[in-house]
Amino acid sequence: MNNYYSGPGASGKEDYLAGILRAIDTFPSMPSFVSSIIDLLHDPNANIQTIAERVKFDPGMTANILKLTNSAQFGAQHRIASLQEAIVRLGLRQLFQLVVSAGISKRMTRPLPGYELRADELLSHSVWAAVASAELCKALHINAHDMLFTAGLLHDLGKLILDDFVQNEKGHLQELVQLNGMTFDTAETEVLGMSHAETGAQVLIQWNFPEALSAAAAWHHHPEYAESHKDIVMIVHIADALAYSEGVGCGIDGMQYELSTEAVNQLGLKKETLEYVASQTLSKMQQLEQILKG
After folding, report:
1. What pTM, to 2 d.p., does this model score?
2. Where are the domains of the chain?
3. 169-184 pLDDT tens trace
4. For 268, phi and psi rounded to 5 degrees?
5. 8-state DSSP, 29
6. 128, 180 in Cβ contact below 8 A?
7. Ordered alpha helix ranges (H), 106-158
8. pLDDT digits (tens, 9 = 90+) for 150-164
9. What fold characterizes domain 13-293?
10. CA-CA-CA-CA dihedral for 34, 38, 40, 44, to nearest 10
11. Alpha-carbon distances, residue 70 vs 15, 55, 86, 151 (angstroms)
12. Could you count the other beta carbons within 10 Å of the beta carbon of residue 81?
């Protein structure tokens, strides 16, 4: 248990919310070079050599970038052996996605008893959603946003913070879901003052990540309410639902997932499209998950 609340029955919604906000403030930041790469994304004068110099001081990160570059998901036509060649091939935005993937994945391997997720289940679910998001874009012939994979990967980031709070109020949350017909994320807001979706979005805003990523995290359960980057939010929502339908990382909340009719209609989704995306995702995510586990 963390130290952000006093124990069962001792906290009201306001106390929980205060604890969650403190947990967000103290949540470990990404490695400093991730922040530097974000800065480079906005620097028109950034060059390959500058980027390589920033990354090469972390041998583990360099190795992971090369593994990911050569994976089926990122699709190198020939094997890439050097960091500089990887950066040339990928470009800054793809590099950012790889660095974030390698930087966050280790945190997603721990068990989350509040959400009834065993070790590695959050990572499996997140990787599935990330790959499926990219595959949906291809299958629907949509111009894939260059942050879509990362949006899928980070959509459930807030569960890492909310897990202890959910564990503390699990009975109350389940009662609201089962007896009152609430979705689990709505029950989180009702009991704790903030859902895992909003919690994750706040972390990403705090990290100064691109707005598309925080929007996808904030609205992945309710894409119809998104005010910006709605196409990305809808795709991540569908990919998330698809992961649950395939039984990947369901946990306590997977069975209460409500699919957005608006997202289905706007994307023109058909059953055969989802079946194709699921098969493509499975073949790619297993290799990717192994790389990210290290």
Report:
1. 0.88
2. 13-293
3. 999 999 999 888 899 9
4. 65, 40
5. P
6. no
7. 121-139, 148-154
8. 999 999 999 999 999
9. Hypothetical protein af1432 (1.10.3210)
10. 170
11. 47, 17, 9, 21
12. 10
